[in-house]
Amino acid sequence: MSDLERYYRVLELEPGATLEEVNQAYKDLVFVWHPDRIPKENLRLQQKAQDKLKAINEAREKLRSLKTKHQNTHNSPPPQQEKPSPTTQKPPKQNSDLSGKDYSRANLSNKDLSGRNLSYANLSGANLSDTFMHKVNLRGANLSEANLFRANLLLADLREANLRAANLIGADLSGADLRGADLTGARIRSGERLLVKLVGTNLAGAIMPDGSIYQ
């Protein structure tokens, strides 16, 4: 079995599935295999879940990379006959450094911002529902009143971030760094039920939704 076939099999897809189908399969499987859904005392299943998540993340990233590369190649214009001069500028690569940018009230729902640098960016009131932000840098970012419903923030850097009155219902903050973040008034519960995934999250010094400081 080739690596490509294995990636499709991990995501329980037929070869040739679209990027949209890959993303949906990823969401479904992460929901099924998230460690929060498995009893913590069952170490065997916890380890199995971790291994599954690792394989699922790898499969999605590889397939997304291959499909994006194929799409860019397919849509690129035919090569010119003239040999370009040595001074010809290459087209800029996709910029991952978005630090300090203003995205207030922007609709970024379902976007893939994984690994991007959005430190100190203004995302106040932005719609980030179902957005992929795995390992994103949001240190010092303004996310006040942002909608982070079901956002994937695995291993995100949210140190000193402003999350006041943000909607975090359904968000996955597993392994994220929230040291010194301000979550005053943030929505994380429905009644007494916690609806945010916080497995391995670092909350040292964070201001919690009720105004208390996490010790």
pLDDT averaged over residues: 85
Q: Please give the share of residues in helix.
A: 25-40%
Strand content: under 5%
Spatial order of strands in the largest sheet: 1-2
- How would you spell out the order of helices and strands? HHHEE
Low-confidence stretches: 82-94
Class inferred from helices and paired strands = mainly alpha
Determine the CATH superfamily of the largest domain.
E3 ubiquitin-protein ligase SopA
For the record, the CATH architecture of the largest domain stands as: 3 Solenoid
| Largest β sheet strand count, sense and barrel closure | 2 strands, antiparallel
What is the CATH level 1 assignment of the largest domain? Mainly Beta
* CA(first)-CA(last) distance: 50 Å
Rg on CA atoms, Å: 20 Å
Number of domains: 2
Tally the helices: 3
Looking at the structure, what is the overall shape?
Answer: globular
**How many beta-strand runs?**
2
User: Which topology of the largest domain does CATH recognise?
Assistant: Pectate Lyase C-like
Report on this model:
By secondary structure, the chain is mostly helical. 26% of the residues lie in helices and 2% in strands. It folds into two domains: 3-72, DnaJ domain (Helix Hairpins), CATH 1.10.287.110; 96-215, Pectate Lyase C-like, CATH 2.160.20. The protein has a two-stranded antiparallel sheet with strand order 1-2. The relative contact order is 0.09. The model is unreliable at 82-94 (pLDDT under 50).
